[in-house]
């Protein structure tokens, strides 16, 4: 009987093959399909390997009376109702740290792409217009920018370290002041936005950070302001960001995440002051392999009665 439920259409063939080889399994593409599993299958499931951003609720957990662990593929577990899992004695694990470098790299890459207008530069060369004599407009230096990191967690710190190497002045907000190499702490995101040109959002997702980068914060950034987001679309008031971008009240944005992704608000697509990526922050072959291995290691530890590697609750 299946012990493992693999839940997520987003698993790659390689990831599924590794999970499937590990123990008897069943597969569903996502939470909405869980109720359709036969009762016998549901009763034998002890672990869920989860990949996706659909809500996984207490009602779904109740479909599996022997469920003991939900292992999330990803560091962000905002899709999973953690309180519901805890109330049922179900452990949740995630995949922290192994993706910090990739996500931080992408944040810096989007900032450079935005400042140096790299997508338009590529288009100029490809189109033959450069060869035909058209010149490329001067753009904006990235090194030395004044940057505010919103959320100095594991990923935020990697971004700050990188930008410090680019001679940027680092400011940050977080729940409390942290030990840093002299970076400037702000308790208020509005006050920080007034002091910096670039905001990089590296918050956790979920209810408590919803709209944290508010209309007020965006308005405080000013006309040189650039917003970079590699966290969750929910952390920014997306309507307020779009208004500011459309009206030229800020300079631009580099976004890897969106409110209703993968359905991106069409207003973004009309803007030439944004750089858009398909939520690929952790998406290198090397990192995704580490995430998949950590997910499986958590499931195997649980089933062996051993301590979990990266527990959430
Ligand atoms: C996704 C992510 O998990 O780790 C996270 O929180 O957002 C990503 O790494 C990945 O896209 C799979 O859904």
From TrEMBL:
InterPro entries: D-isomer_2-hydroxyacid_DH, D-isomer_2_OHA_DH_cat_dom, D-isomer_DH_NAD-bd, NAD(P)-bd_dom_sf. It comes from Primorskyibacter sedentarius. Keywords: NAD, NADP, Oxidoreductase. GO terms for molecular function: glyoxylate reductase (NADPH) activity; hydroxypyruvate reductase [NAD(P)H] activity; NAD binding. This is Lactate dehydrogenase-like 2-hydroxyacid dehydrogenase. PANTHER family: 2-HYDROXYACID DEHYDROGENASE YGL185C-RELATED, 2-HYDROXYACID DEHYDROGENASE-RELATED. Belongs to the D-isomer specific 2-hydroxyacid dehydrogenase family. Residues 37-313 form the D-isomer specific 2-hydroxyacid dehydrogenase catalytic domain. The keyword NADP applies. The keyword Oxidoreductase applies. Residues 108-281 form the D-isomer specific 2-hydroxyacid dehydrogenase NAD-binding domain. It comes from the Bacteria. Coiled coil: none annotated. One of its GO terms (cellular component) is cytosol.
């Amino acid at each position: 009987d299946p012990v493992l439920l693999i839940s997520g259409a987003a698993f790659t063939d390689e990831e599924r093959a590794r999970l499937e080889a590990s123990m008897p399994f069943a597969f569903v593409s996502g939470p909405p399909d869980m109720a359709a599993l036969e009762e016998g299958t549901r009763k034998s499931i002890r672990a869920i390997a989860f990949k996706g951003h659909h809500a996984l609720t207490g009602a779904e957990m109740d479909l599996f009376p022997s469920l003991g662990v939900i292992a999330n593929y990803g560091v962000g577990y905002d899709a999973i109702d953690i309180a519901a899992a805890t109330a049922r004695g179900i452990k949740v694990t995630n995949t922290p740290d192994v993706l910090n470098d990739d996500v931080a790299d992408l944040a810096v890459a989007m900032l450079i792409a935005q400042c140096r207008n790299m997508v338009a530069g590529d288009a100029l060369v490809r189109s033959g217009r450069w060869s035909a004599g058209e010149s490329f407009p001067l753009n904006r230096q990235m090194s030395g920018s004044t940057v505010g990191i919103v959320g100095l967690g594991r990923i935020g710190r990697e971004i700050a370290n990188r930008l410090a190497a680019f001679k940027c002045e680092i400011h940050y907000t977080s729940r409390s002041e942290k030990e840093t190499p002299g970076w400037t702490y702000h308790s208020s995101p509005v006050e920080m936005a007034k002091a910096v040109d670039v905001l990089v959002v590296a918050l956790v997702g979920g209810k408590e950070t919803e709209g944290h980068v508010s209309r007020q914060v965006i308005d405080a950034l000013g006309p040189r302001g650039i917003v970079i987001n590699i966290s969750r679309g929910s952390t920014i008031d997306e309507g307020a960001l779009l208004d500011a971008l459309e009206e030229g009240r800020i300079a631009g944005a580099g976004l890897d995440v969106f409110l209703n992704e993968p359905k991106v608000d069409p207003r973004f697509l009309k803007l030439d002051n944004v750089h858009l990526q398909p939520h690929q922050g952790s998406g290198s072959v090397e990192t995704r392999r580490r995430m998949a291995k950590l997910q499986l290691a958590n499931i195997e530890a649980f089933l062996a009665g051993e301590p979990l590697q990266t527990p959430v609750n």
